[in-house]
Amino acid sequence: MKKRFLGSVLGLTMVLSLSIVGVAFAANTSGDGTNTAGGTYPIQYPVGDQVPGNDLTTTISTTDAAHDNGLFNANQTGVGVGTNDSTTATSVAKVKPNERVHGEYQNNTDSCASCHQTHTAAGDNLLFKDGVYDTCIACHDGTLGVLNVFDGSTAGTFGGNKAGNASMHLSTGAMETKAAPGGNHQDTSANVDGGTGWNSEFNCASCHSPHGSYSDRLLNYNPNGIGSTDMYFEKTVGTYLNADGTPSTGNVPVKSGGLKLVGGTVYTTLPATTAVPVDVIAYRTTAGDASLGANPVSQEASSVPVIVLMKKSGTTWVRDITPWINDSAGSGKYTTFTNFYDTSKAKLSYSPNPTTSTDLILKLGYAYAKDGLATGLTKVATVDISRAVVVKFDFSSIDEGNFNGIPVKQVDINSYAKAGYGAQIANFCAACHTDYLAKSGTQTGVWSQAFRHTTTSDTYTCLKCHFAHGTDATVMLDSKDQSVATLSAPGGQFAGDVAAATNYMLDVNPSSALKRYTNMSVCWKCHTSSHSGDFINNEWVQGGVSSGVNASTEYSTGGTNLPTGWVDPNATTLPYGTK
Questions:
Q1: Range of the domain at 282
Q2: Phi and psi dihedrals of 176, rounded to 5?
Q3: pLDDT tens track for 546-558
Q4: How many independent structural domains does the chain possess?
Q5: Which of 53, 165, 170, 455 has its CA 20 to 30 A from that of 492?
């Protein structure tokens, strides 16, 4: 795409959100452009940053014509995106009633015309604007009345401004993925399929999959190629590079963090978990075999022979039900099965319309293969299987809007710490922020070594501390989950005074860290417990000695608002005695 930014970065500080470091910018909402249909076009492009002097004031072009070639299309793709009226959603989006634009395409779909033009496209991949960012923002700037990425949401906002200490993922295509903090800045691409992942342009499609996804919110099933990246750097001596880029010298696999099982032996009986150095193995069994436990292949009769993946869970094996990535081109880039006799690829048939004249039938979405012919499975010796990245959320009862008859619900942020959910989020982020997937208390990192806050459990997930899109004072919270809106509301600490509430919420050290909580109040939010015993007898805050401490609202040992696990130091009972 045509890159409109040079992408000067405020600083590569620690970011645990969805892909790479962002840059503070202001949003232009003037809507001074005119589209080819004659309407106004209130697209909100960032300003400054790329201009000489980095003054953050000079506006980039905001006219529709600057991102469109002006050629009409029979489907009128893109016409009407500038009306900023949700009633035009169904005319802007070329979809049938109750049909989605992104994925779940019906056999009579017209959704393609929402984004693509066959002969008159302005951008690569036949996009109706001159790049991925411009195409996505044409609708997701509020035009369709729903999923406006410039409004505050559970994902944050791209619409912050300099005065509000804004920062966001710079998804304009100005930067490459290797700029991600905790990522591969040297771009050795040792563990990336094709060696292009870390060099790729970072844009909206780096995190989202516009044609559908296994994940909620259309999150990419293969971000930065992590799904098709080998699980280990090394399979045999000299075949792969170690984490530091040196040639392998042994035959013990070294983890690289990918999700692709390469050259995996197909086991017919499950070995002891201590007998193999890998975490995932291929297993030939039957659909209802007891060893599959809670995850049998319920789509087949119990006696049908199948190949599945099993992953370690402590000292036992459990079936891995992560969908296998499809390779519609048939190049074997993602999922292949090697023939036992001549080492050629077994003939495959992909669901949902498999034939019966092939060796194997792959049910990719259900993560298993079955016989196409009677001898199909017995021919397979090794497998190369890429597993999709899957992220799930719970949704609240709050509607973000209704699009084309389909309600859009808010994500329930409590699911960021839900069992089975949080680690998925961290693994998604780690596709680019590789080093930040770590346990606390150990020096870790593929590309750099450091002690890091843990992100490998459901409890401590990236999105508990950071927004995915971006942040500023209007969306950040303090340790009591108060916002500018609640602080300035009647009864709030700054009732009726939005300016004072905003000033309270401003970050003292604004950075590109996409903070969910202002300053370091995220630390105080989690550590106001019995684990924070060092502060229980802190005389300085007792009774509000400091004029900056509000004993009725702050966590103060001298106030009425004691955090969980704290004991009143004025109590007459032990262990604290009397005052």
A1: 260-386
A2: -100, 160
A3: 555 565 666 555 5
A4: 3
A5: 165
